[in-house]
Amino acid sequence: MTPQISSVLLRKIMQEARGSPNAEICGLLRGRGAVIRSAESTANCAADPSGFFEIDPSRLIAAYRQARQPNGLELLGYFHSHPAGSPDPSPRDAEHAVADGRLWLIATHDTARMWRAVSNGAVHGRFDPVAFDIVTGKRVTRSVASVRLLGAQKRWSLEFDHFPD
Ligand SMILES: [Zn+2]
Fold it and tell me: Which PANTHER family does the record associate with it (predicted)?
């Protein structure tokens, strides 16, 4: 199933990434099935947050607990930023990722891509690139490969690239 995220959530993550040029931001993607309904930032507990991220373990535990509630959102994945890098997973990301099929959204100061943590992935043996759908109001942009954040503070817009057919 193709993951789906709203442009509002994407813009929020990307603005946060852009606003933190010296430390990686991170958080949880939660939702139902393939639909991401929430992107909550958490503290970055890494010893060196300029080059890595570690989601606050207490927030992870809370997310697992919530997922077991009757109407709780599932933990669909994680987001983090690469302030000075590319939106591709680093070797260190691969080292720390569990091949559990969860989504990894990675944002730079202006670009974001989505990945899935799998065994035998195309990137560092751990990640496959994932096309995703973006919902803007009632419009759905399908099979997006990457998103760029354009413009200045009050006029952010998103530009989409698609995977070649
Ligand atoms: Zn990373």
Answer: CYSO-CYSTEINE PEPTIDASE
